[in-house]
Amino acid sequence: MQYHFKSKEDIAIAALAHVFEEVAERLSAIDPRDTAIEERAHRIVDTLWEFYGGPRYVAASEILMDTRQQAALHKRVRACRLALAVAYREMWDRLMGDTLLDPDERQHLLQFIIATLRGLALLRLHERDPILFGPHLSRLRALVAAAMRDGTSAVVPAAAELPPLDTNTSIFV
């Protein structure tokens, strides 16, 4: 380890980048040209839940939480996350390109999906029964499919009703 990494901080950055790049790679494997909207919505939610509902997200969260106490490392981690967020947005636009969602709606939907899955991930820390998660994931899949198909969703307000997006946010990862 010491041969490849100069410091503990370099290991933390590499671990975070690896985990989030892996998620982006899995999402990039979904071909919007060959996947109907319903199936694509299911695959998107399931792919993201595979990460957020698993031990890798917990480990990444612990690393992220630990970096808050170290200003220099936190700054490096934030820069890494912002760079990854750009890749996530590009991948997301590719997945949503044939939908009726405008660019702002696309980003709000991605933020909503990730926030929902993060909440379920916190619940999973305390509740291990997979039966608890099935109904939530089904609703999320249906909401995503409806938003992709209809261009908006009654559950998620239109982009005009939401605060403007911060293009420098790292909420995507």
Number of DSSP helices? 6
How would you sum up the major sheet?
A: none
Mean pLDDT: 84
Structural class: mainly alpha
Compute the separation of the termini in Å.
Answer: 25 Å
Shape: globular
The proportion of residues in beta strands is under 5%
H/E topology pattern: HHHHHH
How many domain regions? 1
Weakly predicted, low-confidence segments: none
CA-based gyration radius: 17 Å
- Name of the top-level CATH class: Mainly Alpha
Shape-level CATH architecture: Orthogonal Bundle
**Secondary structure: helix percent:** 55-70%
CATH domain fold name: Tetracycline Repressor, domain 2
Number of strand elements: 0
Characterise this structure.
With 173 residues, the protein is mostly helical. It has a single domain, classed as Tetracycline Repressor, domain 2, CATH 1.10.357. The protein has 6 helices and no strands.
Structure summary:
It is built from six helices and no strands. It has 173 residues and is mainly α.
